[in-house]
Design brief:
Layout (H helix, E strand, L loop, with lengths): L2 H15 L11 H30 L2 H5 L6 H4 L5 H4 L15 H5 L2 H4 L3 H4 L23 H9 L14 H4 L4 H4 L12 H8 L4 H7 L34 H5 L15 H5 L49 H6 L24
Helix pairs in contact: 1-2
Length: 344
């Protein structure tokens, strides 16, 4: 027996033949040698097939995903800072077992995404995740909002269903961005830039001489409005215009001994909240604003002349020097015993 055959015999054939007694009339031992050869070839081929087996395992979504709350599988491909920044946000806090992300990881927002996670054959296009929030494969508004509302219910989102934004097919991600470490719309100094994307007319108002300090970053749109829905008009946080305004301008609340009816009714009768070229956010300059209601007052000729007023020859003086407000300074209401005409 040659050296090579002896080595083959000791490595492959003999371990199989030894346990099998060959008796007279038994089957031809060469069959056992063939079986041994086949087994040995299987061992050799196994080493070569192993990478293929690993490849097949990779194509199994269950093997790729591992633990559902482990984002490492996703980060193997999605490793750009614009994606990984979500790891520093409340959306990826896993320490609280009550949160969906603790149990499902990225899938808690992007859906099962089994087809996306599986390995695709060469030349084929990888399917997008089940739910996509931005880009070419963006999912429907309903699909995206359903994901968000799965966690964000109640509180300021109580009236989302049926709100102006929801009825206008506005998605949560039209305003919010969950991946950045800081959602721009939640930053007071930058929030208005998001709102102005759609409400461009309000940007123009905010740049007028008289305005709330929104562009300066000392107020945000959400200080007055609840973008997720409200029981009041215009998505206001208060049930009425006055309730919203008086949240800050409490000195105008009253009750007063002498009331000014428009003040008690609606602040927006005289004021425009987003910006004006007139002082104090007034819709018009006095006396023209006042005479929208008081056109039959004692000073009915005021817009045309100074007749009936002291210094009647100089009507411009009455207008330049704030006209009606020169005398009726307590325009929001008065508690003075002699303040019936809101003059003190």
């Amino acid at each position: 027996m040659s050296r090579w055959r002896r080595r083959w015999y000791w490595m492959a054939v003999r371990p199989i033949l030894l346990p099998l007694p060959i008796e007279t009339g038994a089957r031809d031992p060469r069959k056992y040698m063939i079986r041994a050869w086949l087994l040995w070839m299987a061992v050799i081929l196994g080493a070569a097939v192993n990478p293929a087996l690993a490849l097949a395992a990779e194509s199994d979504p269950a093997r790729v995903l591992g633990n559902a709350n482990d984002a490492d599988a996703c980060l193997k491909c999605h490793d750009a800072p614009v994606v990984t920044s979500i790891l520093h946000t409340p959306h990826m806090i896993k320490s609280d077992s009550r949160t969906k992300v603790a149990a499902e990881g990225c899938q808690s927002c992007h859906g099962d995404s089994t087809a996306h996670m599986a390995r695709v054959a060469e030349g084929q296009t990888r399917p997008p995740p089940t739910v996509v929030f931005r880009g070419a494969h963006t999912s429907s508004v309903d699909a995206r909002n359903q994901i968000c509302s799965g966690c964000h219910q109640g509180g300021t989102a109580t009236h989302w269903q049926g709100s102006q934004h929801a009825s206008s097919e506005i998605a949560c991600t039209s305003c919010h961005a969950s991946h950045p470490a800081r959602d721009v719309v939640l930053v007071k100094t930058a929030q208005a830039t998001v709102c102005f994307t759609c409400h461009a007319d309000r940007r123009a108002d905010a740049l007028k001489p008289s305005h709330h300090p929104v562009v300066e970053g000392r107020m945000a749109c959400a200080d007055c409005h609840n973008p997720h829905g409200s029981v009041g008009p215009h998505l206001l946080r208060g049930a009425t215009v006055n309730e919203t305004c008086l949240g800050c301008h409490d000195e105008k609340r009253g009750p007063f001994l002498w009331e000014h009816a428009p003040v008690a009714e609606d602040c927006s009768i005289c004021h425009t909240p987003h910006g004006s070229v007139q002082a104090s956010l007034l819709k018009q300059r006095p006396p023209y604003l006042c005479q929208n209601c008081h056109d039959s007052s004692l000073h009915n000729s005021q817009p045309f002349s100074g007749a009936g007023l002291s210094g009647g020859a100089l009507p411009a003086r009455q207008q330049v020097l704030r006209a009606c407000l020169n005398c009726h300074s307590a325009v929001h209401g008065s508690n003075h015993p002699s303040g019936v005409r809101l003059s003190r």
